[in-house]
Amino acid sequence: MSKDIRSIFHEQGLKFTPQRKAVLKVLQDTHAYLSINKIHANVKEILPGTGLATVYRSLETLVDLELVVKVHLEDGCHSYTLAPEGHRHPIVCTDCSKVIEYTDCPIEDLSKKVSKDTGIPIQNHFLQLFGKCKECRA
Q1: What are the angstrom distances between the C-alpha of 112 and each of 17, 86, 89, 118, 124?
Q2: Out of 23, 79, 92, 127, which residue is the most buried by the measure of CB atoms under 10 Å away?
Q3: What whole-number distance in Å separates Cα of residue 75 and Cα of residue 135?
Q4: 5: burial class by Cβ within 10 Å (0-12, 13-18, 19+)?
Q5: Whole-angstrom distance, CA of residue 95 vs CA of residue 75
Q6: Topology (CATH) of 1-83
Q7: Which region holds residue 76: left if phi is over 0, alpha if psi is between -120 and 50, else beta?
Q8: pLDDT of residue 2
Q9: What's residue 62's pLDDT?
Q10: DSSP three-state, residue 69
Q11: How far apart are CA 98 and CA 92, in angstroms?
């Protein structure tokens, strides 16, 4: 994350609370997609009194600020990781829930066409794909 995190919160009129800081630290230390329960367990090691609802709210704020990304899993649960640099699309393995980041964007041309056809400027998009990774197919 190139921009100072405190200034991102300040610009939005939000506090950079110890809980939000702990959630970011957990994600920064792991560099992986983590479930809410795993994040909560790791945050409790840093701030023992932190409840699950606080972690949920912290994650939603971090997602809204585009510091964290949320991936939807086939079982209806979510995993979270630090927002990667650049534009990426997650591919989730339907067997092991491993997430592979795909850097090519097949949606750009479609977004331009939709904007032209509808008169609505497309500001952003989210594409997530599901399939079996190489290891699970083996």
Answers
A1: 39, 19, 18, 10, 11
A2: 23
A3: 20
A4: middle
A5: 10
A6: Arc Repressor Mutant, subunit A (1.10.10)
A7: left
A8: 40
A9: 95
A10: strand
A11: 6
Tell me whether the CATH fold assigned to 1-83 matches the one assigned to 86-138: no
Residue 111, Cβ density class (10 Å: 0-12 exposed, 13-18 middle, ≥19 buried): middle
Sequence-ordered alpha helix ranges (H) in the chain? 5-11, 18-30, 36-46, 52-64, 108-118, 134-137
Whole-angstrom Cα distance, residue 138 to residue 119?
A: 47
> How much is the pTM?
0.73
Alpha-carbon dihedral angle through residues 131, 115, 63, 36, given to the nearest 10 degrees: -30
Task: Find out if CATH 3.50.50.60 is the number for domain 86-138.
Answer: no
Q: How is the chain split into domains, by residue range? A: 1-83, 86-138
Give the three-class secondary structure for 107: coil
pLDDT in tens, 55-85: 999 999 999 998 998 988 877 788 998 887 7
For residue 99, the one-letter residue type is: V
